[in-house]
Amino acid sequence: MAVDTLRFATAGSVDDGKSTLVGRLLHDSKSILTDQLEAVERASLSRGQEGPDLALLTDGLRAEREQGITIDVAYRYFATPKRRFILADTPGHVQYTRNMVTGASTAELAVVLIDARNGVVEQTRRHAAVAALLRVPHVVLAVNKMDLVGYEEKDFRRIVGDFAGHAAELGLPGFTPIPVSALVGDNVVERSAHMDWYRGPSLLDFLENVPVGTEAADAPARFPVQYVMRHGELRYYAGQLVSGSLRVGDRVTVHPSGASSEITGIDVLGTEAEVAYAPQSIAVRLADQRDISRGDMLTTGVDVPALTQEVRAAVCHLADQPLRVGDRVLVRHTTRTVKAIVKDLGGASELGANDLGRIGLRTAEPLALDDYTVSRHTGAFLVIDPADGSTLTAGMVEL
Predict the structure, then answer these.
(1) How many whole angstroms separate alpha carbon 45 and alpha carbon 30?
(2) Could you report the per-residue pLDDT of 28-79, keeping only the tens digit for each?
(3) Do the Cβ atoms of 286 and 263 come closer than 8 Å?
(4) CA 214 to chain centre
(5) 343 vs 327: CA distance, rounded Å
(6) pLDDT digits over 145-169, tens only?
(7) Nearest by Cα to 360 from 314, 306, 308
(8) Cβ contacts of 8 within 8 Å, gap of 6 or more
(9) Which is nearest to 377 in space by CA: 135, 207, 132?
(10) Rounded to the nearest 5 degrees, what angle is found at the Cα of 74, between the Cα atoms of 105 and 357?
């Protein structure tokens, strides 16, 4: 049986124990190399600790913070017999909210960590808002440090209730609460013997069994053209099928021109195929010679994207340079880049780094957009500084 991959992100306030949780997950799932574990044990011993301080496995990130270096998302890779994992470990400070946006933008699951002693705090609400904004399909509420509140069920239930109220306001479709102690190892990989009142899965159990890949497969077919290749008289349109499926014989519409044709061939890794599924990278041949170039999009059926030059979106501003009404920018949507002007900022005078807000843009050429709730691929875009190509803002389309 094929082993699939889950991309997930972690987020938590400072000192909530996220480093220890990540370290415990890697350690207890036997995903730490022997030399890494020995180095952690030596460092822990030098600090007077008998056992390994699992938080030291992420000390590189902490050292960067102390040196004042810009902190990016740290990616970690591990696997169990059931599934492969790509973990985006995001910083907890409020000034690094933009880094959580980066890490969670491609995640199918987010683990939001809470200290059981402190409950839901402002940064917890901010992390939940980002998860809701990015439409992360699955959210785990990991209530950590349960050992420090005597493993009391009432403390866990109170926190879950507080978070549920906030999640409802944000429009989060749901979340899975798990009581854990990263330091001791309760309900991280192994089930806890200290909380017999909890009947749910451990964190790893949930990560191994949560459904993945359903969004791209179930969504309408969207194929942004990345590259046009010629072989003799034949033209191949290459790129990644970001959602849905394409079959030989399908009628396709080209956006933004509106031209139509029929698929006569599909190549997957150089091999002829009758059907392709997202997120495969493919090359498509059409029955007719059409004027198709990079940035165009092929779709099938009647469920087509909105072709518009007026873009409204929820955004997170990523750059230190503020964004203001009247700014002339570039908008990069899938493989298409167009000029645009900032028309409004939802009533704000400007957007600064890490600000969450709303934006209105007018583009020089039409874009084929889906609402972000329908597709995280064709409903997302970047606002770019035309002067130096730096990324200013990440946007989630609202139609």
Answers:
(1) 21
(2) 887 665 556 556 556 656 666 655 555 555 554 454 444 443 345 677 888 8
(3) yes
(4) 15
(5) 8
(6) 999 999 999 999 999 999 999 999 8
(7) 314
(8) 85, 86, 87, 88, 107, 108, 109, 110, 111, 207
(9) 135
(10) 35
Locate 140 and state its tokens.
């785990």
Q: Measure the CA dihedral 373/212/333/276, to 10°.
A: -120
Tokens 């609460």, residue located:
177
Residue 237 amino acid letter: Y
Written as six digits, the tokens of 186 are 């309760």
Q: Could you tell me the two tokens for 173?
A: 């479709």
Instruction: Find tokens 């049986």 and name the residue.
Output: 1
pTM across the whole model: 0.78
